[in-house]
Design goal:
With about 240 residues, the chain is an alpha/beta fold. Helix content is about 35%, strand content about 25%. The chain contains ten helices and ten strands. The strands form two sheets. It has a six-stranded mixed sheet with strand order 6-7-8-3-9-10, with helices on both faces. The protein has a four-stranded antiparallel sheet with strand order 2-1-4-5, covered by helices on one side. A hairpin with a 2-residue loop joins strand 1 and strand 2. Helix 2 runs parallel beside helix 6 and helix 6 packs parallel to helix 7. The longest helix has 16 residues. The chain is globular. The termini are far apart. The mean pLDDT is about 95.
Length: about 240
């Protein structure tokens, strides 16, 4: 198993945001985490990315105990995050933003090959490589954020609400890109409020509510559960 979380508890001071969460992501899998606003999805993915420390439980990547890995070294172990809201350096060029993703020495050594790989996935970015990132459309900015994460040559990519703020016409394209990332050999953990799209591309999914994982399984089975159909699909 590539990623293993066991009984993970994450708190902000005395306020617990995630309770005893257990989940797994295998090599080559897309795993979705769905749930309402405030359920703890971003908190969970931030802890996996090394941005937050957890207060209990275990988290392993490829058998490595991430509790023993300093936050600034998590990326070097093979995890890259595509954050909610993209968080680009808007006054830097597209290519400068992409290059920020390969600061880890091993990724820096493969910079040219990985950059070609990113431009192969997103030809529009090659055309706009010298343009300031802040002048791109929302969809193009999301491509830069995904490309920046790929520049780290990760084993696991974490997506935090990748469709947020995008025009409906390009949301389908964004989920196709997530599929293409998996086809590149990278496992995906996807946090997403667009339940149908998240389920459509996932191999497995977890439902997070009020900080607790309340259900998990293959998407087709989960979508048959009356609670999920009522809460997330309005059926």
């Amino acid at each position: 198993m590539l990623l293993e979380a066991r009984n993970l508890r994450i708190a902000y001071g005395d306020a617990t945001a995630v309770w005893d969460a257990s989940l797994e992501v295998a090599e080559g899998e897309i795993v979705s985490v769905i749930g309402p606003n405030g359920a703890g999805k971003t908190t969970l993915i931030s802890a996996i990315a090394g941005l937050l420390r957890w207060n209990g439980g275990t988290l392993r990547l490829g058998g490595v105990d991430l509790a023993r890995v300093p936050a600034h070294r998590v990326c070097a172990h093979g995890i890259a995050l595509v954050p909610e809201g993209r968080r680009l350096f808007t006054r830097m060029s597209v290519e400068e933003n992409l290059e920020i993703g390969c600061y880890v020495p091993a990724a820096r050594a493969a910079r040219d090959a990985t950059l070609e790989r990113v431009y192969g996935l997103f030809p529009i970015l090659r055309q706009k490589r010298e343009q300031m990132a802040g002048l791109l459309s929302g969809g193009q900015q999301q491509m830069v954020a995904i490309g920046r994460a790929l520049m780290a040559r990760p084993r696991l990519m974490l997506f935090d609400e990748p469709s947020l703020g995008l025009a409906p016409a390009i949301v389908d394209d964004m989920f196709d890109i997530v599929r293409r990332v998996r086809e590149e050999g990278v496992a995906v953990l996807l946090v997403e409020q667009n339940v149908l799209k998240a389920m459509e591309i996932a191999d497995r999914a977890y439902v997070l509510e009020q900080g607790r994982i309340v259900s998990s399984g293959v998407p087709s089975d989960l979508l048959q559960q009356s609670h999920i159909r009522e809460a997330y699909l309005g059926v």
